[in-house]
Amino acid sequence: MAYVNAQGDAPLAPVSELFSLQGKTAVCTGATGGLGLSMSIALAEAGADIVSIQIANDPRADMLKEAVAACGQKLQVFETNVADSVALRRCFAEIWAAGVVPDILLNCAGINRRAKVEDFTDEDIDAIYAINQKASFVAAQEVGKKLLELKRPGKIINIASIISFIGNYNIAAYAATKGAVLQMTKAMSNEWAKHGINVNCICPGYIMTAMTKNYTEDKEYYNYIIGRTPAGRWGLPEDFRGAIIFLASKASDFVCGTSLVVDGGMIAK
């Protein structure tokens, strides 16, 4: 059965096409990381070509390349240090000069350092803020500016954290930056939603990746997280495949400035 919109003047896309990304291009930072790789591959599986902004000689570059090729999609790689905002802006200029027309931004580059509040060094604070906060802002800004210039709709998906909501211990700098990403998402959405640019964020819980290796190797802490999580397990990178496709596709066209928490129920407990 065919359906029309509420005004009765336009046919609706069938649900089978609602989550398709055929013909779309996704610009991704952090696409070779634990979560970023899984989500980038999901975007490619749904039909999107991938433009990856990554460090030179990235040791996981081949994994992304092979996975995107296996999906039958195109991969373009641009190398830069996202912690250097001047270099990052220059990288985006190169991307646009190469003819890339963006539809989606997966803003996934991020790091963490652990210390007591009183022990954080300027080096650690600067590194965390440069990647988690400023690079996220610059990437979203550059893609948003391009979409506005082209008068195109688009999807910007930032990666925040459940630490955007809860402080936890020994990660004060990380918590500050992830709180900033959450608020940045709302503020950008307020300005761009009327232009058809959806800005949202995903807030992961405790996920088994290289970033959490120290936690997962600590048996007591590993079991604490399981006990604290209603789903009864740690999250896995593949748990984010559905979330990223939803926020990148037409299925989320009226979802603006929100945070999608993927944490097995931890912050609801």
From TrEMBL:
Record-stated family: Belongs to the short-chain dehydrogenases/reductases (SDR) family.
InterPro entries reported for this sequence: NAD(P)-bd_dom_sf, Sc_DH/Rdtase_CS, SDR_fam
Entry GO MF terms: oxidoreductase activity, acting on the CH-OH group of donors, NAD or NADP as acceptor
Name used for this protein in its record: 2-deoxy-D-gluconate 3-dehydrogenase
Highest taxon above the source species: Eukaryota
Gene3D superfamilies per record: NAD(P)-binding Rossmann-like Domain (3.40.50.720)
NADP listed as a keyword: yes
Keywords recorded for this protein, A-Z: NADP, Oxidoreductase
